[in-house]
Design brief:
Blueprint lengths: L12 E4 L6 H10 L18 E3 L10 H22 L3 H5 L1 E12 L3 E6 L6 E8 L14 E3 L26 E3 L5 E6 L4 E6 L5 E12 L2
Antiparallel strand pairs: 1-8, 2-3, 3-10, 4-9, 5-8, 5-10, 6-7, 6-9
């Protein structure tokens, strides 16, 4: 019997939240919050030119639009977790959600180095604005890039393994974010943002989640 197993697969959830009708208000809130009060004084990667990183408590802010977005993200994350774990609703109700959450404003030349998010299980990126309408294949569009987490997986390449389908490929996964797009991925997954060269602000919200049982 022939069988091909997808071993060590990495679940990455992508969805454009078309029905979210307050994205413009989120953008306005973030741009108004580009202040010393909100800025993280000691970002984990240090400060980069043309990149503003907020403190890691965004979802604790009492802004109505931030609280609305938080509930939407919680709902999408819960559905994703339920599906990949075969959880029932009662399993989710027994979980305590914890998070760090923040925003980035990236301007011309801004980028982010490869990193992952220790001490969390799932990470989230929500795109408020992708910035300029740069062609998706352009490497100056500020792509979010995910790296293969399997150490040594590409140690030897030849014609039989260079062009495997996405489920098996070693190649980085490049994402040109859309406005209102939500991505959920395992926090261990290394990722970075390629340099963004544009006139409009590229605005994203990020969060790390971890969980405990209520009892």
């Amino acid at each position: 019997m022939k069988q091909i197993n997808t071993l060590f697969a990495t679940p990455v959830y992508r969805k454009v939240l078309d029905k979210l009708n307050f994205n413009d208000s989120i953008e306005q809130f973030i741009l108004q919050s580009e202040t010393l009060e909100f800025e993280k004084p000691n970002p984990p990667q240090g400060k980069f030119p043309n990149l503003f990183e907020s403190k890691f408590d965004l979802f604790k802010h009492d802004s109505p639009v931030i609280q609305q977005l938080k509930q939407v993200i919680y709902s999408e994350l819960a559905q994703f977790i339920a599906e990949i774990n075969n959880f029932k609703l009662s399993d989710l109700e027994n979980l305590m959600f914890y998070n760090d959450s923040w925003f980035h404003i990236t301007r011309n030349g801004g980028y982010f180095q490869p990193h992952n998010h220790p001490l969390a299980s799932w990470s989230v990126v929500y795109c408020v604005s992708p910035g300029d309408k740069i062609p998706s294949e352009d490497k100056q569009a500020g792509h979010l890039v995910f790296m293969d987490s399997r150490a040594g997986s590409s140690m030897f390449l030849d014609p039989t393994n260079r062009t495997m389908s996405r489920a098996y490929s070693y190649n980085g996964y490049r994402v040109r974010l859309q406005a209102k797009e939500l991505i959920i991925f395992p926090s261990y997954l290394n990722h970075y943002v390629e340099p963004y060269l544009g006139k409009e602000e590229r605005i994203t919200i990020a969060a790390n989640f971890w969980f405990h049982n209520k009892r």
